[in-house]
Amino acid sequence: MISGLTADAISEHAREPMAIDLRKARMGDIAPLLELINGYASQGIMLPRTEFELSESIRDFSVAYAGGRLVGCGALHFYSPTTGEIRSLAVAECAKTHGVGRQIVETLVTEACDYSLDAIFAFTYVPDFFRKLAFEESERGALPLKAWKDCLRCPKFQCCDEIAMIRVLQPAHWADTPHQQGYQSTPNEGTETVVFPIVRK
């Protein structure tokens, strides 16, 4: 899930870009990351993260600091040798409309290119933000089923209103790769079947 961004965060009418220190996250960043991410999670617009989860995935994260304070974060999580997800993207209230979100996404896109990924995707409430960064709306059935593992614990799972966005980085490779077609269900650890929601038109 993505939060803390508005559609005008990268518009021509945005405020002056904020000078930030943008780098890969370290273990010492976990406490402020928890505060930022779970602050939005308490509003129901991001999935909450635990200290254990962040410790496991800290290498996925990039962080933005200004004046010694964490003002933004985002993660690039790999789902296959060719695809990854931009996730846990958040910008602090004090840093909105200063281009922080754009800088974080551009950094994650560069990282994805360095790893020769064919495509990256995101689930978001602000599709216009991602459209301005060359993402396009996608049917969820085109995305890896592994991407749903975090969704299973989301309270909005069966009535999801996030939009799936994708940016193809290597069109020739992507066109030649078979992708998930249609919508499927997969068993839980028990006997129930999970029905994946469909993006609203």
User: Count of DSSP E strands?
Assistant: 9
Q: What radius of gyration results from the CA coordinates?
A: 17 Å
Distance between the termini: 19 Å
The share of residues in helices is 10-25%
| Poorly predicted ranges | 7-13, 180-201
Within CATH, the superfamily carries the name Gcn5-related N-acetyltransferase (GNAT)
**CATH first level: which class?**
Alpha Beta
Number of helices: 5
Q: Order of strands across the widest beta sheet?
A: 1-2-3-4-5-7-6
- Written as H for each helix and E for each strand, in order along the chain, the element string is EHHEEEHEHEEHEE
The overall number of domains is 1
Give structural notes.
By secondary structure, this protein is α+β, with helices and mostly antiparallel strands. It has a single domain (7-195), classed as Gcn5-related N-acetyltransferase (GNAT) (Aminopeptidase, 3-Layer(aba) Sandwich), CATH 3.40.630.30. The protein contains five helices and nine strands, in the order E-H-H-E-E-E-H-E-H-E-E-H-E-E. The protein has helices at residues 30-41, 51-57, 100-114, 127-131, 171-175, and strands spanning 21-24, 61-66, 69-78, 83-91, 119-124, 136-137, 163-168, 185-187, 193-195. The strands form two sheets. It has a seven-stranded mixed beta sheet, with helices on both faces. A two-stranded antiparallel sheet has the order 8-9. Helix 3 (100-114) links the parallel strand 4 and strand 5 (119-124). The chain is globular, with a radius of gyration of 17 Å. The two termini are 19 Å apart. Mean pLDDT is 79; it is low at 7-13 and 180-201.
